[in-house]
Amino acid sequence: MIWNEAKECMSRDEMTHLQSTRLVKQVNYVYHNVEYYRKKMQAAGLEPGDIKGIEDITKLPFTTKDDLRNTYPCGLFAVPRSEVVRIHASSGTTGKATVVGYTRRDIDIWSECVSRVLAMANVGKNDTVQVSYGYGLFTGGLGAHYGVENVGATVVPLSTGNTKKQLTMMKDLGVTSIMCTPSYLMYLTESIEEQGILDELQLKSAVCGAEPWTEEMRNQIESRLHIKAHDIYGLSEIMGPGVAGDCVYHKGLHINEDHFLPEIISADTLTSIGDGEIGELVFTTLTKEALPLIRYRTKDLTSISHGKCECGRTTARLSRFVGRSDDMLIIRGVNVFPSQVEAALLEMGEVSPNYLMIVDRVNNLDTLEVLVEVDEKFFSDEIKELENLTKKITHVLQQALLIQPKVKLVEPKTLERSEGKAKRVIDNRKL
Amino acid sequence: MILKQLSVFVENKEGRMKDITQVLKDSGINIKTMSLADTTEYGMLRLIVSDPDTAKAKLREAGFPVSITDVLAVKAEDRIGFLHDMLCKLDANITSIEYMYTLPTDEGPVVILKVANPVEVEKVLENI
Predict the structure, then answer these.
(1) CB proximity B14 to A under 8 Å
(2) ipTM of the complex, rounded to two decimals
(3) Which CATH number applies to A329-427: 3.10.350.10, 3.40.50.1820, 3.30.300.30, 3.30.70.370?
């Protein structure tokens, strides 16, 4: 199912032309309506006329989270408050919250983008969709909600928490699709299995996002729930969920690039890199009114590919996210991503993928402790078996991370399950 | 005879044992005997209780990893050399013991043994 064939299946030339026209317009708009950007461009000796198409994008300065913080709360808004119909704010897990705003047209485009991703998951007007993202300042809940309404499906706005109620509603209302974070869906999966109610559900698909997850985790969700699990990507600064999503072929996330112009840059040299190479994802909004952003550095690490997908869409695709450049831990000089731990544990198949990494520095030496929940299915009452399991996990992780972690088994469900975002790392080092 | 033993994984955290006994008390489960093995990071609590199936269900509900293991119960004779004689028999039959502890009963003490093949070992030990 393709929501907007005219936009999602256009030729590369048509897309480049559309993006160029919109970029020129957006740069002009930003220059004249946002003082901060005008000054930034002037400092770089740029005038709006210097940008004639997307090939000129690299002339423009980057925008970072610091720019949003420096102008807190609404300094980068391009419209007066009378035009702003909604505010969201980022969770502020890595600093002060960032405030974002939307005009009515921004909300319409956002709903359109989410609708496209829902169509990728074959969600249509006959579906009942449970939205289990948090409603409120977080973009997940309301963003998903408006998209579901826009496709004409029935939305069940459960928000997060109260697992018992989530499952009752899912069962009683015949919910066919759920939108939530992947870690929360894993948690729900465990509860569904515990209660043995899978046969009573009509769930066909899930659209998960708001935190990075691995292919292994997707496989688990799909095989344990007998559903298709789709990835939806977004960030509040650019819009919220719906910037990109993956179709039934699971061959990368289609970017809604008629609204968001993507670039991949090397995080070291800040220069553009080619298709297939991993780097930092950068977005320029092409149609935003309230908060237009030029070359916003997402910190998300991925690669991009062009070329037609089996589903018929021609939009550029993002590969699975490797992590975030600010998620990356450097332990004893080795780059470590939490996603590597998750993938390794899932591949072992003997433990649950719930883990917590604790990094510390003892006598000037970095230490990594990984807490792993024992899975009842593999639980042995013999200490030597548990010790063997610990050794095996240590070995698998050492192979994957290239550093030796200290593995500790913990009781199931003791590690914090996220209903918003999973906490996977505690870094106690004072650097 | 073969008994159903309850094995519970316990993290080394304050009050964790008490959490388990609370569940058992609230569920009307009587503890006949217990043994606690400890490592630096966690413990393994092994219990013989009045109703192992209910106890397992209740502890699971409370979030403890728990399993039921078949163990061998051998009536002990109150005499010098009984344990030694028993071990010699096991040794002659090349049976290794994973762990053992005792259970007091009205008819005297009983030795609880975890072995790989409890049914066969029971036959071997019929006449010590």
Answers:
(1) no
(2) 0.77
(3) 3.30.300.30
